[in-house]
Amino acid sequence: MPTALITGILGQDGSYLAELLLGKGYRVAGIDRWTTTAAFERIQPLLDEIDLIQADLHDQEGLMELIENYRPDEVYNLAAQSFIPASWSQPVLTAEVNAVGVARLLEALRLIHPKARFFQASSSEMFGQVLEIPQRETTPFNPRTPYAVSKIFGHWLTVNYRQAHGLYAVSGILFNHESPRRGPEFVTRKITYGAARIKLGLASELRLGNLDSRRDWGFAGDYVEAMWRMLQTDTPEDFVIGSGDAHTVRELCEQAFGGLGLDYREFVVQDPRFYRPAEADILLADPAKARQKLGWQARVTFNELVQMMVDADLQRLAKEMD
Ligand code: NDP
Ligand code: GDP
């Protein structure tokens, strides 16, 4: 039975990846950083089947002990400070976790268990103010946020440990991926939850920032499959993982509110508080390499994704109101 270690297992992707790997017969371990209010909601149904270990990407010794104890076949580094606005208010913390944290984990592997296969969750935000549309593996990075800068360090370090130390280490350049388990501060969930609240009479408006930026949104369940496939190839390589289809935030509003029989223009208020100091205007993947070499493509369409999220938020709210 192969063993997988997932950092960030309590996050959106961690929960989908844990489900996928358990289904494939893996022994799954994940790290959980200690907090006063533990949030196990996303992996509640899996708690009996996975090992949760207290560790933190800030703590080198803990990571080394973990690698020594588990000697995992595959390591998925999904842990991150993943919210872009927080990377402006906490740039040092963002760098500590998203950049230096990758170095800590790679060092632990290099020193103790270099045979492990390593996946790094990189981000389309690294393309920032894009130099090419659509973006592919060879598109130069041009970051617009402290988050993107930190992720570029993690990306290049992963490439470097492959080239310099011979580790099987790969970077997945992930475009935005969402689900009913997405954090409520990200724009998709903010809109689907906000629209559902308005539909149920629990709110009368939804305050958002820039409605014109375009993102390539896919379903997280599809993207964790790509992560796994990336670690099964004979030769370690980096891949762009996205759907190849982009929409504006405005179109997302239209779709989410429209599905509930509402006109978003009556409820959405643009609020300068949610504008960013610098924006990535258009992120759109060219996923050709992933299709050719991994046989992977996003299955859930934009409309299906929005519908899935709106339905889940309606159900969740209806339960709370009971
Ligand atoms: P989430 O924010 O949902 O999950 C991140 C997880 O990392 C959380 O469980 C969090 O723990 C954990 N974490 C944060 N800091 C630390 C730390 N110091 N030590 C250990 N764990 C920590 O992100 P997603 O699941 O959406 O994303 C997974 C990865 O993919 C991230 O690296 C993200 O940056 C990257 N990515 C995601 C994209 C997306 O659209 N979702 C797009 C591109 C890249 P806690 O639960 O305690 O807060
Ligand atoms: P990101 O692409 O990783 O930053 O994912 P987000 O979901 O946080 O943001 C996606 C896009 O939505 C960005 O271009 C934001 O500027 C835009 N956006 C517009 N209004 C909002 C808002 O109220 N909250 C968030 N999070 N993003 C918003």
Description of the molecule:
There is one protein chain. α4 (91-112) packs parallel to α5 (146-165) and α6 crosses α10 (302-321). The chain has helices at residues 12-23, 60-70, 84-89, 91-112, 146-165, 187-199, 220-230, 249-258, 288-294, 302-321, and strands at residues 3-7, 27-32, 50-54, 74-77, 117-123, 168-174, 177-178, 206-208, 214-215, 218-219, 239-241, 247-248, 268-270. 41% of the residues lie in helices and 16% in strands. The radius of gyration is 19 Å and the shape is globular. The N and C termini lie far apart (43 Å). It folds into 2 domains: 3-177 and 217-241, NAD(P)-binding Rossmann-like Domain (Rossmann fold); 183-215 and 247-282 and 302-321, UDP-galactose 4-epimerase, domain 1 (Alpha-Beta Complex), CATH 3.90.25. The protein binds NADPH dihydro-nicotinamide-adenine-dinucleotide phosphate (NDP) and guanosine-5'-diphosphate. Guanosine-5'-diphosphate (GDP) is lined by residues 84, 125, 176, 185-188, 190, 208-210, 213, 215, 249, 274, 276, 279.
